[in-house]
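Q: Please design a sequence for this.
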């Protein structure tokens, strides 16, 4: 019997009525003789509400306790969906991430899945049940509950699909796939019917609210095709898969990230202390750049920290500044504009054109980082959305509103 994994998230799981509709959809698939494993996100704004509750008690809540708190959101959804499935006459069972065998490292709030042992999931499937699993969560090898960071339910779904050798993985939300830009900023952003693993991974790493980057990596390694669809408005979809390099050309999308901090360190000895402290506090860094030789007056390094899910960032920042004194500078006035495409390492055309475009529109830039699939540029946070609109209009011909 074929097996598929479906993930439901976003506002499509916002209330009980929508969960009833999802139960009807899942029931229809099950009655076609297909085994179904369902991964769910927290309902509506539950996660944000839980964060606000914690912040009302402490401005810097411990991340281990935040994982314990936030993991309850998905548990509520999975139990309610199982109750709805039972009303549809479908046998089902809800499992937490740990019960489903999702094992992670010991990082809190942004854990990495290191192994999936879906023994219990297989057992329940063999009994003819639909298995509903709380996404976004797992258990560390230390037996602590962990969460997988922003978009972590996608990671849960794809990791399970790989471990279960599923036929495909369907990602359902309130949007019908991936667009050339955030439709909330660019009303005429174009829908992308197909995109490569690498391109969408770069979009996710650059801050786009698309599939989780770790989820895409699992799919890429296991050769699982992903389908990003709207839950209640079927029709369009984005297929994420291997795409032949000759089919990948030019600029594909323009994305951005607002919640970042740029950290400068001017002393190699203090750099070791900073990096060690960040690692001890499980803070990942990216876009690391180094100039000058150790011991030189011109020695300087910089890197970025994505602060969106670091609930105690203010405390960590305060300790860093206190420990390092004049050896560190933290800039929180910048955001990242990223041009996503293919072949950017073959020549400098896209980079030079984008920098000229920003100059012509009097938008200053404060750093550039490139890969074969991405050009990322630091601009002032207040001008970030304007920069997205300008670059999207230049690189991607808009389609008229209908």
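A: Design:
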């Amino acid at each position: 019997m074929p097996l598929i994994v479906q993930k439901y998230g976003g506002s499509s799981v916002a209330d009980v009525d929508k969960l009833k509709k999802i139960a009807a959809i899942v029931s229809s698939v099950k009655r076609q003789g297909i085994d179904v494993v369902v991964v769910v996100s927290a309902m509506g704004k539950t996660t944000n509400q839980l964060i606000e509750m914690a912040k009302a008690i402490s401005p810097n809540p411990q991340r281990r306790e935040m994982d314990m708190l936030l993991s309850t959101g998905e548990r509520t959804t999975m139990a309610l969906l199982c109750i709805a499935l039972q009303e549809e006459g479908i046998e089902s069972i809800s499992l937490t991430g740990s019960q489903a065998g999702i094992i992670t490292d010991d990082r809190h709030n942004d854990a990495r899945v290191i192994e999936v042992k879906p023994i219990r999931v297989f057992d329940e499937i063999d009994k003819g049940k639909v298995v509903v699993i709380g996404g976004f969560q797992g258990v560390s090898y230390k037996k602590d509950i962990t969460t997988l960071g922003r978009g972590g339910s996608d990671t849960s779904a794809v990791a399970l699909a790989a471990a279960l050798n599923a036929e495909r993985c369907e990602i359902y939300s309130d949007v019908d796939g991936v667009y050339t830009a955030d439709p909330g900023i660019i009303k005429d952003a174009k829908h992308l019917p197909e995109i490569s693993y690498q391109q969408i991974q770069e979009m996710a790493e650059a801050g786009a609210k698309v599939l989780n980057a770790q989820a895409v990596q699992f799919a890429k390694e296991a050769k699982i095709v992903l389908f990003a669809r709207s839950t209640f408005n079927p029709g369009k979809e984005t297929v994420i898969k291997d795409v032949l390099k000759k089919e990948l050309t030019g600029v594909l999308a323009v994305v951005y990230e607002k919640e970042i901090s740029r950290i400068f360190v001017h002393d190699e000895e203090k750099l070791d202390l900073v990096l060690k402290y960040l690692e001890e506090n499980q803070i990942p860094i990216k876009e690391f750049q180094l100039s000058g030789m150790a011991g030189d007056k011109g020695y300087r390094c910089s890197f970025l920290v994505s602060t969106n899910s670091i609930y105690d960032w203010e405390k960590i920042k305060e300790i860093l500044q206190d420990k390092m004194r004049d050896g560190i500078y933290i800039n929180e006035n910048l955001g990242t504009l990223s041009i996503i495409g293919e072949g950017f390492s073959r020549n400098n055309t896209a980079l030079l054109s984008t920098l000229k475009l920003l100059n012509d529109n009097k938008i200053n830039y404060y750093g550039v980082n490139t890969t074969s699939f991405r050009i990322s540029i630091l601009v002032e946070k207040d001008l970030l959305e304007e920069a997205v609109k300008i670059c999207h209009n230049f690189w991607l011909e808009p389609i008229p509103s209908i």
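Q: Thanks. Anything notable?
A: Residues 3-174 form a domain with the Carbamate kinase fold (CATH 3.40.1160.10). Confidence is low (pLDDT under 50) at residues 398-402.
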